[in-house]
Amino acid sequence: MSKLAVGIDIGGTGIKGALVDVVKGELVSDRVKVATPEGGDPDAVLAAVAELVEGFGKKAEGVPLGVCFPAIVRHGRTMSAANVSKRWIGLEAESLFEQTLGRDIHFVNDADAAGVAEVRFGAAGGSDGLVIMTTLGTGIGSAFIYDGELLPNTELGHLELDGADAETRASYAAKEREDLDWATWAARLQRFYAHVEFLFSPELFIVGGGVSKNHAQFLPLLDLATPIVPAVLRNNAGILGAAWLASGGSRD
Ligand code: BGC
Prior knowledge:
alpha/beta, Nucleotidyltransferase, domain 5, five-stranded mixed β-sheet, 15 strands, six-stranded mixed β-sheet, binds beta-D-glucopyranose
């Protein structure tokens, strides 16, 4: 397993990347960020990622490169587009990135990348059994990691609750959009996490996304039998996970 890799995390508003030490699980360059092109159109996103990777110069040459993206990823194809341009649906995204960048990449869902990073380097603290990572952002992302192995594309944000996709009611974007106070938002999160707990009986929930830095405002309001902890890698989880998976990351 190589020690260095590049991780790129594509989101609805920003594209972030860094060079990563995948043994220590640390960034070894500055984190570079560019705005996601308006509309999130594939050609524009590909060009922005190419520019970002070029910016790392020689240091990034010949090292594994992982890219994570907010969609279902099956055999390198993007199969959904909840918060990005619908033009991504059905695209051979991994091949398009490889052609544009002129190198192999590892392509994975954004929450899956964040989840493996938290389990490997962050908040899971060696928990075995089922760990469920959730990211509360524009949407709700989810990752299931069972005994260290990722079960990809779980998409809990699209679980239907009270007649709507869970993420349209309980994401951080929903809180902002509807100007919900912490208690009102927490009541929606309670509905979501209690249902997921009932369905899957995990050992641990990890809560990521930028809002997890304010965890003291809402996690104590949740009443669950399962421990629920904030992510510790914050905005770097996607970058670290994508880089680690690209480097051939596995349990041991
Ligand atoms: C998408 C997921 C993604 C999540 C977080 C959801 O809307 O369907 O694929 O992981 O947002 O970005």
